[in-house]
Amino acid sequence: MVTALCRVSDIPEGDARGFDIGAQRYIVVRRDHAISVFRNECPHLRIPLEWQENHFMDPGGEFLQCSTHGALFLPDTGECISGPCLGQFLVSVPFVCKEDQVFLQN
Ligand code: FES
Q1: 90 lines ligand 1 (CB under 6 A)
Q2: What's 99's domain CATH number?
Q3: Domain total for the chain?
Q4: C-beta 71 within 6 A of ligand 1
Q5: Is pLDDT at 6 greater than 80 in this prediction?
Q6: How far apart are CA 106 and CA 93, in angstroms?
Q7: What is the 3-state secondary structure (H, E, C) of the chain?
Q8: pLDDT band at residue 18, thresholds of 50, 70 and 90?
Q9: Are 67 and 55 in contact (CB under 8 A)?
Q10: Is 69 in the pocket of ligand 1 (CB under 6 A)?
Q11: How much is the pLDDT for 73?
């Protein structure tokens, strides 16, 4: 089963956006023209990463950053490379892109 999540063109290059389907929250990252999709849940306290809507990137725009304690995550793999959940990962979500549309694979 596939579920439409967003359009690729909804995500500015080098940035990330949040999307919700029901109670499930997702982060979609677009970087170097590649897309990554993660569950919006920090591995440290299992809470969403952002305090402000769609504010997921660190000040340098290089990493995803958790607003609560500042953990940094690689935008392609979701690995935490700094912070209290060092070495843990955001949960990757399987997806496919067809033309401009991102579909979750359930
Ligand atoms: S809740 Fe994300 S780093 Fe602590």
Answers
A1: no
A2: 2.102.10.10
A3: 1
A4: yes
A5: yes
A6: 9
A7: CEEEEEEHHHCCCCEEEEEEECCEEEEEEEECCEEEEEECCCCCCCCCCCCCCCCCECCCCCCEECCCCCCEECCCCCEEEECCCCCCECCECCEEEECCEEEEEC
A8: very high
A9: yes
A10: yes
A11: 98
List the structure tokens of 43.
Answer: 């591995």
Distance CA 57, CA 55 (A): 6
Question: What does the CA dihedral 37, 94, 89, 65 come to, rounded to 10 degrees?
Answer: 0
Distance CA 96, CA 35 (A): 9
Rg (CA), the chain: 13
Range of the domain at 26: 2-105
